[in-house]
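Justification of resources, computational component.

The compute hours requested in this renewal are based largely on the per-chain cost of generating structure records like the one below. Each record pairs the submitted sequence with a full structure-token output. That output is archived, and it is also reused by downstream analysis tasks.
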Amino acid sequence: GPPAKGGAVAVAAAAAGPAAGGRELRAMLFGDVKGFSKLHETEIPAFVEQILGCFGRTLARYKANVLLANTWGDGLFVVLNDPLAAAHCALDLQADLGQVDLHRAALPNTLALRLGGHFGPVFEIQDPVLHFTNYFGAHVSRTARIEPVTPTGEVYVTEPFAARLALGPGDFACDYVGQVPAAKGYGTMRMYNLRRGA
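The structure output for this chain reads:
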């Protein structure tokens, strides 16, 4: 069954803000669209307009909480200042994509989003290449390793993320799915399937 969350709740109890070592506690989402690599070159403009356009419209509703949103190909990286907003945003990204008429857009109906979420301390630093505030550190890498092992159409979150949501407010359920091996040999992590509460 699910592990006791006492320790993780204590760790996650602080609101997003200063953490040890000059880091900030942030909620992070990594996503990718399964099936993107099989698209024909002629389908890329429709993908950008319909799929990335959908993501952009969803993220715009959370602009008060989004600190960074970035894409590369089908990859999506979002940093938010609040885990509750991140949970709503993640579930809305999935729901909104489900409303896109892929057939009408002449895109394969096999395209589907995988999203991973984590809450942890990161360095918030001006990126000397991109010239905007970017996010660095082990917890960014940890978030990136969740998405590849997440089933399509789902949002998997780590125990710190789930523990912070358990503190409320918000009507979320985090169903424990077990010790899931992360991508690229990153080890196993306790993982939860995020959904809206009943």
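Residues 44-60 form the longest helix (17 residues). The helical segments are 6-12, 44-60, 83-98, 138-144, 159-166.
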